[in-house]
Design brief:
This protein has 35 helices and no strands. The protein is an all-alpha fold. The radius of gyration is 41 Å and the shape is elongated.
Length: 609
């Protein structure tokens, strides 16, 4: 209970005019000695007037002494003024008695003042009844106070109604907020935030967020540290990082650990790791588990594993289950598998879905597929996209394609690139080209080179045959399928590189074709090496072509071996030609084997002649 329970009433009646904040009377801070002297002089004047029987002076003098903590000095003056019918004195007498522990007697005087029209006394009486558990009486008196315009009464009524789940709570919370009550402004903003979360993309949701921001801003401007934290979060989400940082700083300086932690992340993202660490340390020392985890990660990146482990343990002690998960990751990186499993289990049992997934992977790597499966399932059911994908792999490995596909689809729906690729491949096998294309586009858009290649092959099969062009005749028009081939090729996909080379050659762009064939060949593609050899041979560089054909043939390319056999036969190196012909026969395919066999027999006859 505030010492000056009737402060608002005293202001309203003009009986108490000295403000508690010097800024309220002009914005300049007066000298403390001067203030004390003025107050002492005022007290003397009031005391003389009170001794002369002035009821107003008795009331104000009692209020002055009460505020100063002089209960013994205040009581007789307040009792005298109350006996003379001063309602402000009755209210303040109630405050005094409440401070002395005489709650019931205090309530009696508050009732007298409230009946006489004191809104502050009605507020105090309402709070008294609520503390006693008498909610109907509390609501009655708080409503009396609120309807008389008492801001604390409006807030207390809103709090009571909100506790009961009454829809009228927001109205009174808004009244209190509009009259400058910072906690009411904050709680109104939180209520609006919660309603906006139920319709995040709708017009109503957007409007609620905007209104919530206004109330957060009002509360934060009045020094509400949690409001400053939430305001910073809204601004950060909107990309207004500079202003967000200012509010985080304001909140953090007022002791809000979550704001200090958020400020640390902003500074880290801006490249100022050292300043980030300072704020994380401050937040972690105040018990913020997220900040402790951030410090652990920072020291782990620096190779300071012991310090990292200490902070992860601090996070865990603060109730942040990520601490146990991060300890598991740290142990796993160091090869301490047994300890990693223990920490993963601790986090997984606490409901950490990624820890459950990591535990399942660890068990699977150890050969315990039976033990891994339920943890994959638990993590996937809890929303882990990676776990859903891993379940798909697990079931596919057992030949349970239908079950695998269900989990792949679930992971793909959540944006998992490789899962979307697997769904696309499965739909292609099933002949559902439209669904296959949709999933392949998702995977390719997510950066999968294999998906980009497979999407290109689907589109390639649909396009009409392109007109033939002579080598050297450049045509720059590219189809969508070629663009996807090029995307895959630029990511190092060898088959895509070969295909891009073939399309370039078909357009007559020899230089581009050679570039892509060479990239594929140097990455180990035997088809790339063979095609590069063909291109070089057509350009008159048969010796260099033979080098690439040799590389392709050594990698098992039958046509390359046949080409080499023909090259050596033309050179008169019949034995070498026969050797490559033998190789081509063994490598195939059938058509190549047949031609190579005829060439080999001819060379054999030539050698035996």
């Amino acid at each position: 209970m505030d010492v000056m329970g009737d402060k608002a009433t005293l202001f309203e009646t003009g009986r108490f005019v000295q403000p508690s904040d010097p800024e309220e009377i002009g914005g300049e801070t007066r000298d403390e000695t001067g203030e004390a002297a003025d107050e002492a002089a005022e007290e003397v004047r009031r005391r003389l007037a009170a001794e002369a029987g002035d009821v107003e002076a008795m009331s104000v003098l009692g209020a002055m002494l009460l505020r100063r903590g002089d209960l013994d000095g205040a009581e007789p003056h307040l009792r005298a003024a109350t006996a003379a019918g001063d309602r402000a004195a009755a209210n303040n007498l109630g405050v005094l008695l409440h401070q002395r522990g005489y709650a019931d007697e205090a309530a009696g005087w508050w009732r007298i003042a409230a009946v006489a029209g004191s809104a502050a006394a009605a507020h105090a009486l309402g709070r008294h009844h609520r503390e006693r558990g008498d909610e109907p009486a509390a609501e009655y008196w708080l409503r009396q106070s609120a309807e008389q315009g008492h801001v604390l009464g409006a807030y207390a009524l809103a709090d009571l109604l909100e506790h009961r789940g009454d829809a009228g709570a927001e109205r009174w919370m808004r009244v209190a907020a509009e009259r400058g009550h910072r906690e009411a402004a904050y709680r109104l903003a939180r209520a609006l935030d919660r309603r906006a979360a139920q319709d995040p993309d709708g017009d109503n949701g957007v409007g609620l967020v905007e209104e919530a921001e206004q109330w957060y801003r009002q509360a934060a401007a009045r020094g509400h540290r949690r409001a400053a934290l939430h305001l910073g979060a809204i601004l950060e989400k909107r990309g207004e990082l500079k202003e967000a940082g200012r509010w985080y700083l304001t909140s953090a300086k007022d002791g809000e650990a979550r704001a200090a932690c958020a400020l640390g992340f902003l500074l880290r993202d801006a490249g100022d790791t050292e300043s980030a660490a300072v704020w994380w340390l401050r937040a972690a020392q105040d018990g913020d588990g997220n900040a402790a985890n951030a410090l652990g990660a920072l020291h782990a990146e620096r190779g300071e594993t012991q310090t990292a482990e200490r902070w992860y343990r601090a996070a865990m002690d603060a109730g942040d289950v990520n601490g146990a998960y991060n300890l598991g990751l740290l142990c796993a990186e160091q090869g301490r598998t047994t300890q990693a499993e223990q920490w993963y289990r601790r986090a997984a049992y606490a409901g950490h879905r990624e820890a459950a997934n990591a535990l399942a992977i660890l068990l699977l790597q150890g050969g315990d597929e039976t033990g891994a499966e339920p943890w994959f399932s638990k993590a996937a059911e809890a929303g882990s996209v990676d776990a859903a994908f891993n379940l798909g792999i697990l079931y596919a490995g057992r030949g349970l394609e239908a079950k695998a596909l269900r989990w792949y689809e679930r992971a793909a729906a959540a944006g998992h690139t490789e899962a979307a690729l697997q769904v696309g491949i499965a739909r292609l096998r099933a002949g559902d080209e439209q669904e296959a294309e949709r999933h392949l586009r998702c995977a390719a858009g997510g950066g999968s080179a294999e998906a980009a290649y497979r999407l290109a092959t689907v589109l390639d099969a649909r396009r009409p045959p392109a007109p033939a062009h002579e080598l050297g005749e450049s045509v720059h028009e590219k189809t969508e399928c070629e663009e996807w081939y090029e995307r895959a090729a630029s990511q190092g996909h060898r088959r895509a590189q070969v295909r891009v080379g073939m399309l370039a050659a078909a357009r007559g762009d020899v230089v581009e074709a050679a570039r892509w064939y060479r990239e594929a060949a140097e990455a180990g593609s035997r088809n790339g090496a063979f095609n590069l050899g063909l291109l070089l041979a057509r350009e008159g560089s048969e010796p260099e072509a033979a080098v690439w054909w040799t590389r392709a043939a050594d990698a098992g390319h039958g046509r390359a071996a046949l080409r080499l056999a023909l090259v050596y036969a033309r050179r008169g190196e019949l034995a070498e030609g026969q050797r490559w012909a033998d190789r081509a026969v063994s490598l195939g395919p059938a058509e190549v084997s047949q031609r190579a066999a005829r060439l080999r027999d001819a060379l054999r006859e030539e050698l035996s002649a």
